[in-house]
C-alpha cells in the first residue's frame, strides 16, 4: 500500500491545467509534479515536459518505464514509473493526465484522485489562441472534443477556472495540501 497521495489533473486543452500545477508547485514545496514524457519537440514550449522521438518513447514503454501511457492529438504521452517511489515515500504527487487513461491509472493506483479543471468554451478558445501552438482549425477541433466528463466510479474534485486565476489556484492548493480528503463521487453531465 502506498503512503502518498496521487492526483491526476485533467480537463480540456486551454482549461489552465499547467498554469495551476505550476502555481501549486510554487506554494507547496513538497508537492511532486511529474514531468510527462511526450513525443513532441521540447522547443514546442508549454508545460515542463521531456520531449522524445516516437522510437525512444516506444523503447521506454516496452521497457516498462511508464506506469501509464496514452495517445492524444497525434502524440504519445507517458507518466514515468518513478512516481511509485515518490508515493511509497509518502509524497503528494500530481500529473497532467488524460481522461481516456484514467481507468488504467485507477487500476494501478487504487487511491487515485481526479482533479477536473473546467472552463467555458470561449475561455478555452481564447487561451488556445494565445498560446500559439495550433492553427484556428486545430483549435476548433479541440473545442469540439472538449468533453468535461470523467469515467464513473472515480473520486473527482472539480475546479472551475473561468474567473480569477488566484481563485482556482487557492482551490487547488487547498485540495493538495489536505492530509486526507473523501471526495464525493461525481456524476458530471
TrEMBL record:
Residues at which ATP binds: 11-18
One cellular component (GO) term of this entry: cytosol
GO terms of molecular function: ATP binding; ribose 1,5-bisphosphate phosphokinase activity
Similarity comment: family membership: Belongs to the ribose 1,5-bisphosphokinase family.
Xref: Pfam families: Guanylate_kin
PROSITE patterns tied to this protein: GUANYLATE_KINASE_2
Stated name of the protein: Ribose 1,5-bisphosphate phosphokinase PhnN
Enzyme Commission no: 2.7.4.23
Keywords: ATP-binding, Kinase, Nucleotide-binding, Transferase
Gene Ontology biological process terms from the UniProt entry: 5-phosphoribose 1-diphosphate biosynthetic process; organic phosphonate metabolic process
Biological or metabolic pathway of the protein: Metabolic intermediate biosynthesis; 5-phospho-alpha-D-ribose 1-diphosphate biosynthesis; 5-phospho-alpha-D-ribose 1-diphosphate from D-ribose 5-phosphate (route II): step 3/3
Swiss-Prot/TrEMBL catalytic activity: alpha-D-ribose 1,5-bisphosphate + ATP = 5-phospho-alpha-D-ribose 1-diphosphate + ADP
Domain Guanylate kinase-like span(s) in chain numbering: 4-177
Summary of the function given for this chain in its UniProt record: Catalyzes the phosphorylation of ribose 1,5-bisphosphate to 5-phospho-D-ribosyl alpha-1-diphosphate (PRPP).
Domain of life: Bacteria
Amino acid at each position: 500500500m502506498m503512503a502518498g497521495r496521487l492526483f491526476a489533473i485533467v480537463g480540456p486543452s486551454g482549461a489552465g491545467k499547467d498554469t495551476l500545477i505550476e502555481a501549486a508547485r510554487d506554494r507547496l514545496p513538497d508537492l511532486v509534479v511529474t514531468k510527462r514524457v511526450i513525443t513532441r519537440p521540447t522547443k514546442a514550449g508549454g508545460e515542463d515536459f521531456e520531449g522524445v522521438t516516437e522510437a525512444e518513447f516506444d523503447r521506454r514503454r516496452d521497457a516498462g518505464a511508464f506506469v501509464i501511457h496514452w495517445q492524444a492529438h497525434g502524440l504519445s504521452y507517458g507518466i514515468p514509473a518513478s512516481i511509485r517511489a515518490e508515493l511509497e515515500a509518502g509524497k503528494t504527487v500530481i500529473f497532467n493526465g488524460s481522461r481516456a487513461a484514467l481507468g488504467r491509472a485507477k487500476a494501478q493506483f487504487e487511491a487515485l484522485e481526479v482533479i477536473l479543471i473546467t472552463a467555458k468554451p470561449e475561455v478555452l478558445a481564447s487561451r488556445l489562441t494565445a498560446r500559439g501552438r495550433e492553427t484556428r482549425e486545430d483549435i476548433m477541433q479541440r473545442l469540439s472534443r472538449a468533453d468535461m466528463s470523467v469515467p464513473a466510479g472515480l473520486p473527482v474534485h472539480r475546479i472551475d477556472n473561468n474567473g480569477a486565476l488566484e481563485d482556482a489556484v487557492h482551490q487547488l492548493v487547498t485540495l493538495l495540501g489536505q492530509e486526507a480528503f473523501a471526495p464525493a463521487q461525481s456524476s458530471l453531465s
